[in-house]
Amino acid sequence: MSVVPESVVPGSFVSGTEARRIETPNGVMTTLASPTQGRAGQAVWRVDAKPGMVGPVHAFDTELVWTWLSGAAVVRLGGERYEVGPGDTMVLPADVSRQMYADPEHGFVSVVVASAGARVYNPGGVSDPDACALAPKATERLVPLWAR
């Protein structure tokens, strides 16, 4: 057993049973740590993307790091196309449009890390008319529920 000196502030613990789960038409986002869950300085969430999911075109105002745990995806980042699978990591820069396509049979599972307060938006300020209720509208920039 180790003892933490009183001058050191201990970290926090987030039980898996307390993880915040947000379901969207494309899958489930599970908050692992965030400013409001564990008092973290970053937002960390798990993405369980449904098989065949086609994500919306969007961008974030900060860098995101994605690591794929299982399944596979195609990521369109700016003008480039990447095929990703288990063990792959992508660093997605701020203010670059991206869209993800999940494997048609298996979907994918990934873990994402972003700065606290990361805001998502529609590049060019144009909303997808079929976007879910949680997506930003027009020129709106918002912190996704799973990153709060």
Can you tell me about this structure?
By secondary structure, the protein is an all-beta fold. The chain has a single domain, classed as Sandwich (Jelly Rolls), CATH 2.60.120. The chain has no helices and 12 strands. It has strands at residues 20-24, 27-33, 42-49, 59-60, 64-71, 73-77, 80-84, 89-92, 98-102, 108-115, 120-121, 141-142. Strands 1-2-3-10-5-8 form a 6-stranded antiparallel sheet, with no helix packed on it. The chain has a 3-stranded antiparallel sheet with strand order 4-11-12, with no helix packed on it. It has a 3-stranded antiparallel sheet with strand order 7-6-9, with no helix packed on it. A hairpin with an 8-residue loop joins strand 2 and strand 3. The protein is globular and about 45 Å long. The termini are far apart. This is Quercetin dioxygenase-like cupin family protein. Residues 56-109 form the AraC-type arabinose-binding/dimerisation domain. It holds the Pfam family AraC_binding. GO terms for molecular function: dioxygenase activity; DNA binding. Keywords: Dioxygenase, DNA-binding, Oxidoreductase.
Provide a short characterization of the protein structure.
InterPro entries: AraC-bd, RmlC-like_jellyroll, RmlC_Cupin_sf. The protein has about 150 residues and is mostly beta strands.
